[in-house]
Every structure is written in structure tokens, then in C-alpha cells.
Amino acid sequence: MKHKAVAASFLLLLPLTACGGTAAAGGDGSTVTVTIGYQSKTINTVTAGTLLRSLGLFEKELGALHDGHTYKVDWQDYATGAPITAQMTAGKIDIGSMGDFPLLINAARGKQLGRPTHLVSVTGYNLRGGLNTIVTAPDSRIDSLADLKGKKVSTSIGSAADGTLVRALRRAGVDPDKGIGKLNQQPAVGASALSAGSVDALSQFVAWPGLLAYQGKAKALYDGAQLDLPTFHGVTVREDFAEKRPAVLEAFLKAQAKTTDHLDAHPVSAAEKVAEATGLPAEVVYLYNGAHGISTFDPAVKPRLVSALKQDVSILRSAKLTGDVDVDAFVDDRYVRKALGAAYAERLAASPPPAASEVWTKGARGTRTFKSPKELLGHLAGHKAGIRAAYVPDATTGTLWFADRAVWVADGERLLPFVAPATAKAYTAGHPGAHVITYADALRRAS
User: Where is the signal peptide, in residue numbers (predicted)?
Assistant: First the structure.
């Protein structure tokens, strides 16, 4: 996907007063354009982007201001966070959403260029880091990070996926700078390179690894949740915009919260709506954004996420992408606290839902949850036709994955799924008698 933005505007012809983004040229100043930068295919940001736009909730909140202005919302779609930051620091985007590493670059660039920005809310997160995955070609013989020595690996430098790659390689004793041939590529370019065989592995963020696995074009090598470090996406705003138009920012955050509630209440239809808007398979969207998906959505700025952001600074600094970043000065949850009122404390204390095995049957309005992966397999064995997708959580990390793409382990009567070979091997090493089996064998044993 190119850096070029795809923009669409929605005009609300409602009487309003002085507040907001950029006054429309040639008018009397009563029309205010609010420009939103988002990443449609980075589906962890849908509550501040794709789904929010589809539901029209921001426009509804703006229409309820009655402050003497007419508001026009300009939605601009990008492939990554970098161009959103460039446009924000140029004063051309007011509110943007991106991942944790790009957020830090956003903070650094804003301060450097005299256009400070602030993290004001969170979109999707995973407390263990499961949103990023390293994958290889389906027929690759690479089955550990150590095997990547001397190999070509595609990632997007400065992204959370690159951060996962660097940390994972260091833990495996591989120098991320000299031990591999790292290629800095956009996600779509890296995906094509993996399919063409010009790279040996791909480290990317949601939803690329899941998409490639679903399409049969890749298999997981490393589950980012093995790092056990939170990763998330969030909303950033220009400081001058927030100070000049706090009511508009509050309207955005209220709309984001309502979009989050909609996603939680209607995960299947939300996945289908996002799929329709992005061209991604709904089954892939649901893997991340479903009722038990890899991502949890909540606008609250949790201390654990802020702490993780501080740990990310050293990775970007070592890559010479930023200097020191004052995370405490960058984070500002005043606006979301005001927008959500008494509900903010409840959201702040909320925990992710427990992982579960699910089946999505064709034509069904919802999914069916099972008590264990083995029960799910038993169902699949008896219903080979009509299954749209089946999901199982990694037995040790909890990361959801497609049942037919998982690494299965038999441990006595138990059938346990794992995202990647490494987590499966770690389990079998600590459980005598446990061994890796094929998916077909797992189905047979469950039936």
C-alpha cells in the first residue's frame, strides 16, 4: 500500500460557534475542517479509524456541539504511522492513530520541530506483545530465531514489529544489526518479498502475519507474546489543536469510546464492517478484533502501557531513530478522562477477556465458544463443511491463532495448540511424553 493518502470528507451542515481545526478557505471562518489520519489496514486502530469512520459517530458527536460552526471531517488513510507524523508536524493532520514505536517517533519529531503532540487515548493493545509476529514461508526449514543468522528479514524500521524483531533476536543471542540482513520495507512490499522468496522471514504488525497465515502464504516462526511486553496502538493529537479546540477532541474521544463499545457488543458484525472497508478477510479481522481476539480495545491510558512505552525508547535510540523521549510529558489523559467521566476509572481497571477457542460457522450471526481446544477439534471433526474459521489460543501465551495453522502438541489426552514452533518445543521440553503432532492427527484424536 502506498504512502499516498486516500481522503474523503463528510460535511455536516449544522449551525455551530468558534472552536476548531482549520477554517475553510474563502469562507467566513465558520466552517472548520478536522483532519484525521488513520491506518485502515492496521486494524488495531479501527476504533479511532476504520470502524469509527464507518459508523459515523464522530460526525454525530460534532453535530451535537451546537457551537456556531459547521464541521467537515477529512479522513486520510495511510499504510503506516510515519506519514501521519510528517503531516501532523506540518500542521496538516489534527488527530492521528498509530502503534507504540511510531507514537514515540511522533513525540520526538513534534518536539524537535516545535509542533508538540500528545498521546491522548489507546485503541487496541495486547499486554504480552502478541500483536507482532515473525513469519516465514510455508515450506521454510527455518524453525528458530537462531536459524535466521545470515538470512534476509523484512520489517518496517521504526515500527513495533521491528522492535519485536530486535528484542527477540537479542534474547536468542543473534545480533539484530550484524547477525541478519535486515530490509526496511513497507508491510505489503515485505509480504510480496516473502512470497517471492527474496527474503527468508518477515516481522510485521497486525494484521499482516495473520493475513499471510490465513492465505497459506506464511507460517509463524515467533509469537511476539513470548516477549511478555505490552504493545499497543493509540491516538495522538497536535498540542495546538487540543488547546484551541478541546471540545472537538472531546467529541472524537467520546465517539471512539462508543465505537469501542460497539465492537465489544457486536464483534462479528464489526469485523465484517471493517473487512468491507479494508478488503481484508473478515476471518483475519476477527482473529485480532474478535470477542477473544489478540487485541483488546479500551481508550483508557493504562499505566502498564505507559511503562512499556518508556522501555521502547531505548530500542529507537539504539537505532538512532530518536534521542531521549519524555514519555511523561507526551502522555496526556486529561481529555479522555473528561470525555468518559466516571466510566474512565472502570475502564482503567478493566482486564482483557480470557482467551477461548471459537468457531465461526458460515451463515451464523455469532461464533460458538468451546471449553477447550480439544472440544473445538471434536466439533470440527464432525462438521468439516460449513466452517468459516476456527480459532485457538496458544497454550502458554494465550495468543489466538487459526486452528489449522497452529502447531499441535499431544500431552496424554490433552491436545494443545501453539502459534509457533518455539513455544511448542518449550512445552514439550518441560513435559515428558508430550510431542508435536499434525493438525490432521489432532483432529483424528479429538474425534
Answer: 1-20
CB atoms within 10 A of CB 87: 18
pLDDT-derived band at 16, boundaries 50, 70, 90: very low
pLDDT for 406-430, tens place per residue? 999 999 999 999 999 999 999 999 9
Model confidence at 31: pLDDT above 50 = yes
Cα 207 from Cα 285, distance rounded (Å): 7
DSSP strand pairing (368-370 vs 152-155): unpaired
Domains of the chain: 6-125+233-349 (3.40.190.10), 132-227 (3.40.190.10), 357-446 (no CATH)
| Burial of 96 from C-beta contacts in 10 A (0-12 / 13-18 / 19+) | buried
Phi-psi region of 27 (alpha: psi -120 to 50; beta: other; left: phi over 0): beta
Task: Give CA separation, 390 vs 219, 235, 240, 402, 409, in Å.
Answer: 16, 31, 47, 6, 17
What pTM value is reported for the model? 0.92
Of all residues in the chain, the percent with pLDDT exceeding 70 is: 94
